Amino acid sequence: MSLEVRKARRLRVVLVCAVMVAAVVALSCMTLMSDSAREGFGDPAAQPWESLFMSHVMIAAMTSPLLVAVLASRQVDIEHQGQGWMLSQVAGFPPGLLCRAKVAVLGPLLAVAVAVQTTLIVTAGLVAGITVPLPLGTWILYAVGLLLVDLALLCLHVLLAARVENQLVGMGVGLLGAFCGVFSLLMPPALARVLPWGYYAIVSPMGMSDGGFVPITPGYGWLAAFLVLVAVLFGTVSHRFDRTEA
Fold it and tell me: Which of 81, 68, 63, 74 is nearest to 24 (CA)?
C-alpha cells in the first residue's frame, strides 16, 4: 500500500482528480449564470435545485468514466514500463495483489473527489442566491451512488490496464463510456442496465419529464447486483493474475 501511495504521488494523480473536480463544478454550475435561472432562485415551481442537480448528473455521467480511465491507466502503466510486474513479483508482490492495492489507493481519492465536487456545487448554488430549501437527501443519495459506480468501473479499468499494455485501449474505453454515460440518461432503464456506464443514470434519484424534473426511485437492486458481479469478477481475475508469471 505504501509503495502504491508513493507511486500515486509521483504520478500526480491527486492533481488529475483536482483538475477533473474543477471542471465538473464549473460545467455543472453554468446553469446558475443565466438571468432566467436567477429569476427562479426563490420560486419552488422553477425548481432551481433540481435544475442544478440534473446538470451535475449529466456532467458527472460524462466526466466520471474519463477520470476513472485516466487514474487506472496512470497507476498501472508504470508497471508495464521497465518490467515493473516482474520486479514486483520478485519482491513478493504478485500482479493480482498489485491490482488490489491500486484499487485500494485510488478508491479513497475518488471518494474525496465526489465529496468535494458535490459540496462545491451545492455551495455554489447557495452563494448564487438559491433560497428554495435544499433537498440535501437527494444530493447525498446520488453522491453515494456515483461513488459506488466509480469504484466498480475503477476495478474493471485496473484489470483492463493490467491485461492490455497499450493504455490507449483503456482510454478509448473511457471515452466510449463518457458518451454512453450521457446517453444513458435518455435510454430506457432496461437498456441502461445492460451497460456498465448506464448505472450513472440508474443511481440518479431524479429524472426528467414533460412537466419538469420529478423524483424517481433509483434501481438499487440492479446496482447491488452490478456491484456484486464486478466484485466477483475483480476478485477472480486478480487472483488468477497472482498465479501467473510476469
Answer: 63
Q: Residue 245: pLDDT above 60?
A: no
Greatest CA separation for the chain? 65
Long-range contacts from 133-137, C-beta under 8 angstroms, 24+ separation = 134/49, 135/49, 135/50, 135/53
How far apart CA 109 and CA 115 sit, in angstroms, is 10
Q: Give me the helices (H) in the chain, please.
A: 2-11, 13-28, 35-39, 48-80, 84-90, 95-128, 136-163, 167-183, 189-192, 199-202, 220-242
pLDDT tens string 28-58: 999 888 777 788 888 888 889 999 999 999 9
Neighbouring-strand partners of residue 212? 209
Distance CA 121, CA 93 (A): 41
Q: Which pTM was predicted?
A: 0.92
The residue type found at 88 is S
C-alpha cell at 66: 474519463
DSSP letters of 53-70? HHHHHHHHHHHHHHHHHH
d(CA 184, CA 201): 6
Nearest 5 degrees, angle CA 46-CA 52-CA 58? 125
Contact 66, 178 (CB under 8 A): yes
Cα separation, 11 vs 125, whole angstroms = 33
